[in-house]
Structures are given as structure tokens and as C-alpha cells.
Amino acid sequence: MSREWRTGTIELLPGYAFVDADGHAVGRAEDVEFTLEGGFVNARLPGVPHTQVVSAPALRLITCTS
To answer: Using only C-alpha atoms, what is the Rg of the chain?
Structure first.
């Protein structure tokens, strides 16, 4: 099964965070490549060499640009 990667902005609820390219915890990330899979979001933030995974209940909003 191949993932369909999209690009957009992801906002997380308070208490949840991504780690950005500078190593800081952020609750909102732009220009993120992401895919939805089984109740989880796989996210690739710009400048971060690995994929981060959050569960669907952590999401406030996903805005897809592509």
C-alpha cells in the first residue's frame, strides 16, 4: 500500500507538539508533507530528517494546499 502525501498546514491541540528543524516544540506547522493512515497523521516538517506521527485526537485543523 502506498501513501498519498499531501502538503498543507497542521495545527495541534494544546498539549501536543511537533519538533521543528531547530528542535523546538511547535503546535502549528506550515508547508508540511502529510498522509492520513489508520487514525494517525504521518508528517514531514520542512528541515526535519524524519517523519513524525500524531494520533487523530491531537489534531485541531489540517489545511491542505495540494
So the answer is: 11
CA proximity to 44, closest of 2, 1, 3: 3
Question: Is there a contact between 17 and 24 (Cβ–Cβ < 8 Å)?
Answer: no
Residue 1: per-residue pLDDT: 62
Residue 30 makes CB contacts below 8 A (sequence gap 6+) with 9
CA separation for the pair 15, 17 (Å, rounded): 7
- For residue range 17-48, list pLDDT tens digits in order: 999 999 999 999 999 999 999 999 999 999 99
Instruction: Please identify which residue in the block is written with the cell numbers 530528517.
Output: 49
Nearest-angstrom CA–CA distance, 31 and 46 = 7
C-alpha cell, 41:
497523521
The whole-model pTM stands at 0.92
